[in-house]
């Protein structure tokens, strides 16, 4: 039997398995777009909407636009922005997306930009993970897993380790 036909040794299997686990635990990254700290809040049974928050860093060297999202857990997903105007909190869809300049950061967080999951197919339960696909004009699609936190959560229970500083994207 030649070396090409030899079965993998236990060490090779361990090394390959470890590499796959490390890759799975890494932040979502495609073409210089890095997504970290993705999370959501639990919803009650029968709720039709949910929300996704995260940090998106653009390290591509060029401006890109976050144009939308999709999830198999909802009929559709849209970028929305919440803001206070004249003492009243408002929310609106952002159909043209949000531009993220090269080297900048966009934070999707309560009271600001977020991904709105519309037409939920089932409740979002604490402890589960909801996969979303983020769409970018230049970088293409980037996957992210929202960690579902408890009702009323204001952030992820286990925030990610700090990443290199990047300036916040202005609204």
UniProtKB/TrEMBL annotation:
Keyword Cell membrane found: no
Signal peptide: 1-30
Domain of life: Bacteria
Cross-referenced Pfam families: PCuAC
Alphabetical UniProt keywords: Signal
Protein name: Copper chaperone PCu(A)C
InterPro entries reported in the protein's UniProt record: LpqE-like (IPR007410), Lxx211020-like (IPR058248), PCuAC_sf (IPR036182)
Lineage of source species: Bacteria, Pseudomonadati, Pseudomonadota, Alphaproteobacteria, Hyphomicrobiales
Region (Disordered), start-end ranges: 150-171
């Amino acid at each position: 039997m030649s070396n090409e036909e030899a079965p993998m040794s236990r060490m090779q299997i361990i090394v390959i398995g470890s590499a796959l686990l490390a890759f799975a635990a890494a932040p979502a990254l495609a073409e210089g777009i890095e997504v970290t700290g993705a999370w959501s809040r639990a919803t009650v049974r029968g709720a039709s909407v949910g929300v996704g928050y995260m940090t998106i860093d653009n390290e591509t060297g060029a401006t890109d636009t976050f144009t939308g999202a999709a999830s198999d857990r909802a009929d559709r997903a849209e970028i929305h922005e919440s803001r206070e105007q004249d003492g009243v909190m408002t929310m609106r869809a952002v159909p043209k997306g949000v531009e993220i300049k090269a080297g900048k950061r966009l934070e999707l967080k309560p009271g600001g930009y977020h991904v709105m999951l519309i037409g939920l197919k089932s409740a979002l339960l604490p402890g589960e993970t909801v996969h979303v696909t983020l769409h970018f004009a230049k970088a293409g699609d980037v996957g992210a897993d929202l960690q579902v936190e408890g009702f009323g959560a204001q952030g992820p229970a286990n925030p990610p380790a700090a990443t290199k500083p990047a300036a916040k994207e202005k609204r």
